[in-house]
Design brief:
alpha+beta; 6-stranded mixed beta sheet; 6 strands; globular
Length: about 200
């Protein structure tokens, strides 16, 4: 058996495994509490595992002391900020990213999925400035995903809270295909190239 044949068999086996649907049932909120749970199933119910998100390990290893990070020069920070701003303001890249999210969402079979996110800074003026971006994003989410995903501001409290529940099923191979199509898109590479030359 040649190396090419073995490689072909391994790739075919990997694609077959990735084509088996994955079922995920979830309910809970962020910050995580005792009601948060996720159940993951694979192989048409052959394997199933419940993940208790609220569980904490009994013993935790001491975290290593982080090394002091090198201070970024103002010039380097400005260049990094300019590159990020260039990527965010690239209309073609944003459109391509939105298309990928839409295809990922459409590739997932959903049952009674509801996701609600509430955001507030504790200062009405700052929350209003944040909502200058969050408002259009909320409209985009509603247009893309319908009422299943809701993003709302809180002008009174400092809060970032998310609640969600539902059941989804998807084929990893299909999601991976959309992600790779986005990653290898000429629009993405042009956007990265334009950001680097700034």
């Amino acid at each position: 058996m040649t190396v090419v044949t073995i490689a072909f068999i391994l790739v075919a086996a990997l694609l077959a495994l990735l084509s088996v649907p994955v079922d995920v049932a979830f309910s809970g909120r962020w910050p995580i509490d005792s009601s948060s749970r996720v159940v993951v199933g694979w192989g048409f119910g052959l394997f199933e595992r419940e993940i208790d998100l609220s569980a904490t390990p009994e013993e935790t290893k001491p975290e290593p002391t982080p090394k002091p990070a090198a201070k970024a020069t103002p010039e380097r920070s400005d260049k990094r900020a300019l590159r990020v701003r260039t990527l965010l303001t690239n209309s073609e890249l944003r459109r391509r990213f939105g298309t990928m999210l839409s295809k990922l969402w459409q590739s997932v079979r959903k049952e009674s999925v509801q996701v609600r996110i509430r955001v507030g800074t504790g200062d009405p003026a700052e929350t209003g400035q944040l909502w200058a971006v969050g408002g259009p994003l909320s409209g985009w989410l509603r247009a893309r995903f319908g009422p299943a995903v809701q993003l709302t501001p809180d002008f009174d409290d400092e809060v970032f809270e998310a609640q969600g529940s539902g059941r989804v099923s998807f084929m990893p191979s299909r999601l991976l295909g959309h992600i790779l199509a986005f990653g290898f898109s000429p629009v993405v590479w042009r956007g990265i190239r334009d950001a680097r030359v700034r």
